[in-house]
Amino acid sequence: DRRESKLTLRPPSLAAPYAPVQNWQHQPEKLIFESCGYEANYLGSMLIKDLRGTESTQDACAKMRKSTEHMKKIPTIILSITYKGVKFIDASNKNVIAEHEIRNISCAAQDPEDLCTFAYITKDLQTSHHYCHVFSTVDVNLTYEIILTLGQAFEVAYQLALQAQRAKPLGAGAGEMIETKSSKPVPKPRAGMRKSAVRACGQERPAGLGW
């Protein structure tokens, strides 16, 4: 979609310090009015008892890779990403299996030991427990694009929140204003790896825009 976007995003290098690319993958409208779908294998999820940011994500990747390495059949899903969040869609029957709101997602990262594997952490608001969901793809660049698209989804959500705040009438109560201090997605390339490990993690914030 080459139409001029009505929403201005910061480039990845500003929205995500150390990002090794200068441009996002998609027009913002793609994440607002449509969705970005990626096929991936779902290795499973595990409870995170001690949340330690990206380290927890990478630990979960290693454990899930080991526990599934002898499985003959691993579920194939479509990850449908928008600025609102991520849906797991069954690749065979197109049913929605699970859905995670963008505000409840954090610590998205590739596995440094296997760049085709990646994961992100979600928070269950009812129990306050954190779970890490682990995936794999057939191609390193595809995994990289998924991580970058997640980063763009956060940036789109952040800019829409700012836009909504500016549109509020003067005198709106401070308690009603949306938190705007986003802890930005921080993809970091590992030395010596082209388009390699992209790590993103940040503090959880009330507005749910942090990684």
Automatic annotation (TrEMBL):
MF terms (GO), sorted A to Z: ephrin receptor binding
Record has Repeat as a keyword: yes
GO annotation, biological process: ephrin receptor signaling pathway
All copies of domain PID, residue ranges: 38-169
SUPFAM superfamilies reported in the protein's UniProt record: PH domain-like
GO cellular component terms attached to this protein's record: cytosol
Keywords (A to Z) from UniProt: ANK repeat, Repeat
Manganese as UniProt keyword: no
Any Pfam family matching the protein: PID
Protein name: ANS1A protein
Name of the gene this protein is made from: Anks1a
